[in-house]
């Protein structure tokens, strides 16, 4: 079942295909009276948009957002906010090969298996272009949680990780990789460039940290803050793993080693550590909310891969065209957007029940 | 906001506290005409129930399930199925300490921060006893997806992992650890026993595999099969990480290494590998659906931990009482149940849209 | 699709059949800290319960409610509140006739058409006994909207209406008919008694009025306060019509005649009339919220009616047993409960978006 | 809380204001493979659009719909269908009066009470222009239920009703009133014209009938077919009452008079009557599904009405501009659309649970 709405009270619904005329999002449930114009959204779209350097796809989209409803005299009215981004660079390439044979690792086969046919142009609805709509919605969500500061970054590319001790949030936007460690960023230049030239692709680990989340957001038991984040992040194209706080490292730890001791503080408790990633029992503790995501390497590569065609015959496919050698890089602003969207929803849900 | 319902069309709502009179679940949207009696549910509850060996909590609960509605003459009627399990061993221990000071890593502080007060007896609603209700619901879900076979198992305890080459599904229930590798199971006896005697606790990695899922279940974009699984699994107590297929290993891989090549087969395509965990673009491929979960070590340990009391003063706490030294072990049947519940929902959703 | 949950953030899920062991409701999303015990719920169940006088069914149920979760030390905890009512008087009558042939106007045929078979004992899930669970949930909802005072009453039975000029809210509970006009109540004694003796049944019009609802509850466009009320009321057994404010009378009026002129007031505007029933644009105006419901006469009558049996053969059926000659009477406390449940949900929704 | 999505599995989300650049709808959950182009939608928009004769508002909108997503090579893909209609005739009139004082009966005061301010141009989000989006979505819904034939019509204007014996479905579109009785249509010409000239307005009763609905659609207990219809219809601007089948007339009837006797038939039972409006126990019987709606007279009249301004001071208001003298007329295609939308959702829900 197609399900393109996310959220419980602060909800957004995205639509659009890679090669259709436009894509967009309807944001519903937004509080009224927030100052909002295209200028509040555009910078986040610009940070995500393709064609900005040689490490990302060379598709060139202006990704200009237009507010079609829900704002009056510069403020949100409380009614649905419709945002639209026109597609301008749907290159009229030849799709006959991809129309006929399935690209392994893409949604080609599964869409056909589910729906009987598919829009094969540029991945159709399964294209990561849809994430532009999420980023636009995320910009609205940020206005709902002004107390929160969200930082996304790339922790590792192709297994080459940053040095956590060298983490510098101020350096993240100084390089094309959203990398908080300048030394790693320098290494990644050749790493990613080599992959690009070879027509290969690389996986990545993306981290995200939200500071300023007060204690008490979240919910037992099926709208837990961590469960909502897991769903949000796993819904991003290419994400195959989600960790909250220490994640899988906690599975190798002991109760003593994993304890986040509490001490008296002037504004709520002070925590001696944050193994939990700022969430206990599904509810925020007041510490930074942290998560890590695994992005797989894109399946769009120049090396021929065995596959089958629509009739089930053996075939071989090479994915030509303009692709990101490491989708995790441009996935980072999408991760930030999903964090904002989940937190905005949880803030309103908390207010609903607890005043 | 308290949210105790999971699912979109096959939905279940759980209720109950650790030390209340009972706990239960209402399963709604179940197809009519399925043969169902308590005997279909009880074995799954028995597999989860406490007090069965020295590696789990010594709380003794019969965990006898009673069907209160939705079944007539031995078959589901299509109306809500109410299942209830009475609590019988809520030992009348002294909770004055835990009522006063927060156990770090538990939901004590966050429930207070959210709701202003909490039922502190045995963790109240945040207790893993709630998962008995999920296991009961999961038994109903299994009847909805008889084509699917679900196998949960423990892959690692405290960092000591099984040998994948030694994986023997038939051995899983031959040891108290849900361990598919007899050699690892032998090692874990002393590992877990030592932790228990020391009043410590251990994390674990739990795997789950669903065979028989046809291609086509799932959905773009926010009810993706992997996103639904991520939410389901992350909602289980103590889970801090979720991987689909290769998960974080994919993040260190290349597009070539991560490709699941397809070949012609008599019943749908044959895949050369399953890095994707049986899901592409959020929709099942027909391969086994696989995931891995990180369970943190429980925070209930005998080593004193710094904390604060309800008034914000410094305190120290030791969590006495009957606890699982490794909650991942008894979490395994819960993981199986959540897998069944997600698949049942996705099967019905697919049928709704695609007939 | 079976759907037994109502509400968006203040949600309740009912379960149970007429002749099963029990019925109940899980209330989720209730704010924490509200004083709640069985004594807060029981009076509303008592007002609805059968067998209290000769104008209602002679089935005798204690309808004793038990709180199974969600309350600790006398206050709601914010977690799901499970309420259960055991069935005690499921008379072991012979259901062979009703099992075989369909009672026209009942859900017998439609349940079979939908589900393939049905629990035929006393109507199973389609029995009005389910409304006991709603009344219990409604008692909780009232605690969420203490600023609101709800008054349900019967306006007409079998076409014999009250005199609006004689409306006396204080008289409603002085007669067995929830009638605010003592003269009408006196007439109805013989009217209803005659119907009962004749094995006939009568329809009724039930009104409901909520005072104290502040301006601003409700929502554009599909969770309008009037749309939510319409769904809530139409979901009650036997209801076939819903009016807000003047309802169908407005359809015969002019814009001038239907205007609710506004004048300055010390606490918000004063309205010269309330044709709108306290709702404009789906949002409360601050005036009393008023609605009227049409209850059909129950189809359970002693006059033989032509029907068919399960095999499609011609048959004739007489509905023996204990039935309400006018289901609208006992429907009145259910209407009050649904009003409270909708308002509680809308209050929390309003708070979520507008703080 | 703003809630602009309707439906459970076949869902649509509308957006847009009367005087914004455009309005639209996203339809999600639509089955794949249905032939769909703008030409399938446009006729329904044309039937609703303003300015077609002197009995409706003189605002002139082309109401040209554009499909922005979800259709590929002329067929629905199963992904969200985005439909957009540009506003072209937002006359730049002076709104200073309506910005300052509240029009009684409109949503002016309630929007301000809820949101703190409002888009006052042409009613903003509360304008009936939003219903164009519903009509567009309804055209898609009709494709999902091709077995169903839906007929909407006006039964009465300003209290002047059709003669049921003269009902002629073929005559409905032969007059500007959706009137199935030519004699009544002739009377209404002067009736409506006089109201228009006087700057007055008239209420109306609209009926709707869906033939071809099979037995079994609908659900106990809160997604009953009649409850869903009630919510859908009551969410339409100006609707104040909903009846299913006999509605309020049933409330004045007896069980004998209200019985829909059943007789054997070659294709399911034959019913001797349809007092129930084709729904029993919330589930369709296989008979035509019928309902009636009360539309109030619009509050936009030239007679001055007492009101207050935003500061709470006494004022007087006259609603100038282009308005429908009887909104029920153009409401009729909206009623048809909502019927289609509810039935499409219920068909898919039924298939989800019952195969």
From TrEMBL, chains A, B, C, D:
Its EC number is 4.2.3.5. Pfam families: Chorismate_synt (PF01264). It catalyses: 5-O-(1-carboxyvinyl)-3-phosphoshikimate = chorismate + phosphate. Its cofactor is FMNH2. InterPro entries: Chorismate_synth, Chorismate_synth_AroC_sf, Chorismate_synthase_CS. One of its GO terms (cellular component) is cytosol. CDD domains: Chorismate_synthase (cd07304). One of its GO terms (biological process) is amino acid biosynthetic process. Reduced FMN (FMNH(2)). The keyword Amino-acid biosynthesis applies. Pathway: Metabolic intermediate biosynthesis; chorismate biosynthesis; chorismate from D-erythrose 4-phosphate and phosphoenolpyruvate: step 7/7. NADP(+) binds at residues 48, 54. One of its GO terms (molecular function) is chorismate synthase activity. PROSITE patterns: CHORISMATE_SYNTHASE_1 (PS00787), CHORISMATE_SYNTHASE_2 (PS00788), CHORISMATE_SYNTHASE_3 (PS00789). Keywords: Amino-acid biosynthesis, Aromatic amino acid biosynthesis, FAD, Flavoprotein, FMN, Lyase, NADP. Belongs to the chorismate synthase family. This reaction introduces a second double bond into the aromatic ring system. Homotetramer. This is Chorismate synthase. The gene is aroC.
